[in-house]
Write a structure and sequence with these properties.
The complex is a heterodimer of chains A (114) and B (115). With 114 residues, chain A is mainly beta. Chain A is built from no helices and 11 strands. The chains are: A mainly beta (114), B mainly beta (115).
Chain lengths: 114, 115
């Protein structure tokens, strides 16, 4: 099976702009989670989607949002970008989203905000 | 709420030497524990996981980890390190229920391998 894919891999934006990142999960996986990785804060959970519904959300401002489509592909959007949003954004998928299932990570999208 | 601590930020080890990475977790119930590895510019790859049963878990690339409930630890070991093991290693705990089905990660341990 193909792994988790994320597009684009690299992105440069300026403050105030918005950005949309895309994630295609492993075929058959219905749960998609997003994480932000920064040198200062480490890996932090953003949100999880399952069957097009947000099931859990981390402690991030409302500028961070996401959605999931009927084919389980997911997008996350960050509006009004700030310098501190520069990070590696990782997407992970698993079959149903139970805690015991392994999360399979994509290569990430590296976002640089200038 | 669950939390994970990896006390060592950096570890330098000689090629061929043994490696042990420490992980301590805090979680009220039986935890689901994971070790992931991240090479520069890459995503996370699962090394091994523990849910229940045998407390010594074998993983890929010759890694193993031991779950010790009394010490709230899940340390990762490898008997003989190869240069390709240079990477960052993350311990994570998975929680279910009110905490949500998410992973909480430790801060990571960066491993450098000396020739």
């Amino acid at each position: 099976k193909a792994g988790v894919t994320q597009t684009p891999r690299y992105l440069i934006k300026t403050r105030g702009q918005q950005v949309t990142l895309s994630c295609s999960p492993i075929s058959g996986h219905r749960s998609v989670s997003w994480y932000q990785q920064t040198p200062g804060q480490g890996l932090q959970f953003l949100f999880e989607y399952f069957s097009e519904t947000q099931r859990n959300k981390g402690n991030f401002p409302g500028r961070f949002s996401g959605r999931q489509f009927s084919n389980s592909r997911s997008e996350m959007n960050v509006s009004t970008l700030e310098l501190g949003d520069s990070a590696l954004y990782l997407c992970a998928s698993r079959p149903t989203g139970t805690a015991s299932e392994t999360q399979y990570f994509g290569p990430g999208t590296r976002l640089l905000v200038l | 709420a669950q939390s994970v601590t990896q006390p060592d930020i950096h570890i330098t080890v000689s090629e061929g030497a043994s490696l042990e990475l420490r992980c301590n977790y805090s979680y009220g119930a039986t935890p689901y524990l994971f070790w992931y590895v991240q090479s520069p510019g890459q995503g996370l790859q699962l090394l091994l996981k523990y849910f229940s049963g045998d407390t010594l878990v074998q993983g890929i690339k010759g890694f193993e980890a031991e779950f010790k409930r009394s010490q709230s630890s899940f340390n990762l070991r490898k008997p003989s390190v190869h240069w390709s093991d240079a990477a960052e290693y993350f311990c994570a705990v998975g929680a279910q229920g009110a905490a949500g089905n998410k992973l909480t990660f430790g801060g990571g341990t960066r491993v450098l391998v000396k020739p």
